[in-house]
Inverse folding.
């Protein structure tokens, strides 16, 4: 995603990009004590609309609470409209982030102070712009997802080193994405997306206690009337279709799974991808409760 934007919001003010800086000794830089969200703004006939803003900010609040961090998520949400106008964007990726920035490098979170910031960026999928059409090559990772018994599966900044290392290994092996599987062989999630399968026309949303409670996953599962349950890797291998969902990836078909031949971009995936696009762009009556116009 490009970061070539003119302005950010930080601690209540719009600032030039060159002035939105964090201190070298920020606690969050050293220990990953921060929380963030990935949110999309879509251009619609009624103007720019944030998709499922409330759900995203509520999840950010839950992550902040884990770190005993006080955030003003309402102020962060309110900054999106002015930022879009300042940066002349009508379709964008939004990154709100809060991190401990002052108070020392000790591990006592109660002594720390936090910085809040929001950025809006021109959107490109982190799986590549062509992923929705040609599909994604996915490799089962040798790494495990951080257990929910170690850290809650929320968007805590430090947790994503786990995802970065797994994806790096997959890319070096000639794939585009990594898939986390637990010690019993049950599918958890990809590094930045949740997982779905289609078998005999039935859509299944993979459910796992270690996976991020994805907002795009929830949306697509509702649109598809999907069954939500645990899925073993063997079942994924036998699926007719496999696809990933996420704020950045949207609905991305998996066309190569762990070197076991190629899957096609199936009809159910295509239909759900189009339905999702109709919803986020305000072309479907189901969209209205999920859109916040700015």
């Amino acid at each position: 995603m490009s970061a070539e934007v003119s302005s950010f919001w930080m601690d209540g003010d719009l600032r030039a990009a060159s002035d939105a800086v964090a201190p070298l000794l920020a606690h969050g830089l050293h220990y990953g004590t921060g929380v963030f969200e990935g949110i999309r703004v879509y251009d619609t006939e009624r103007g720019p609309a944030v998709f499922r803003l409330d759900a995203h900010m509520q999840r950010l609040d839950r992550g902040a609470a884990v770190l005993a961090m006080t955030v003003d998520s309402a102020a962060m949400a309110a900054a999106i409209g002015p930022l879009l106008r300042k940066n002349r964007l009508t379709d964008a990726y939004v990154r709100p982030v809060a991190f401990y920035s002052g108070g020392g490098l000790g591990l006592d979170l109660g002594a720390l102070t936090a910085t809040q910031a929001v950025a809006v960026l021109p959107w490109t999928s982190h799986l590549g712009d062509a992923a929705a059409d040609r599909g994604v090559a996915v490799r089962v990772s040798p790494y495990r997802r951080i257990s929910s018994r170690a850290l809650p599966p929320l968007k805590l900044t430090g947790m994503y080193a786990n995802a970065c290392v797994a994806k790096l290994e997959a890319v070096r092996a000639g794939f585009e994405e990594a898939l986390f599987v637990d010690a019993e062989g049950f599918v958890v999630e990809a590094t930045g997306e949740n997982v779905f399968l289609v078998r005999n026309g039935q859509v299944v949303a993979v459910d796992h206690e270690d996976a991020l409670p994805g907002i795009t996953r929830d949306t697509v599962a509702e649109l598809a009337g999907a069954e939500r349950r645990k899925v073993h890797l063997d079942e994924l291998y036998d699926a007719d279709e496999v696809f990933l969902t996420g704020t950045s990836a949207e609905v991305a078909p998996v066309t190569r799974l762990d070197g076991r031949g190629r899957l096609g971009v199936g009809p159910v995936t295509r239909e759900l991808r189009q339905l999702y696009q109709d919803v986020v762009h305000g072309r479907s009556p189901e969209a209205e409760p999920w859109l916040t116009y700015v």
Observations:
- The longest helix spans residues 53-66.
